[in-house]
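Researcher: Good morning. I'm working through a list of sequences from a screen, and I'd like to move beyond sequence-only analysis. For each chain I'm collecting a predicted structure so we can compare shapes side by side. This is the next one on the list. No need for commentary yet; just the structure.
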Amino acid sequence: QVQLVESGGDLVQPGGSLRLSCAASGSILWINAMGWYRQAPGKQRELVATVTSDGSTHYADSVKGRFTISRDNAKNTVYLQMNSLKPEDTAVYYCNAAVTTYPRALRNDYWGQGTQVTVSS
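Model: Good morning. Structure tokens for this chain:
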């Protein structure tokens, strides 16, 4: 089994910054892509950003130039630096990881429990 634990969500004013972290633990052989998704009230969950094991990144158009995703492979951790936050960034942010586990080298997607980000004055 694999656990993803997120942290860093908070209430912040428009224009402010936050840094989210997500640490993976458990029966991990290796982690392929890691990413962040978000879900606002009454809306579907949407992709925010992803990063592959070799560092290639992808961003939703709505966050390009403001958010930066990164990962520390030695710590099995992914980060999301969020700058110039807007009220429309308010959502629960979820961490996702595609993980190959031992002993049978099975690959599955795992999700964190979510962390609340609220952007409001």
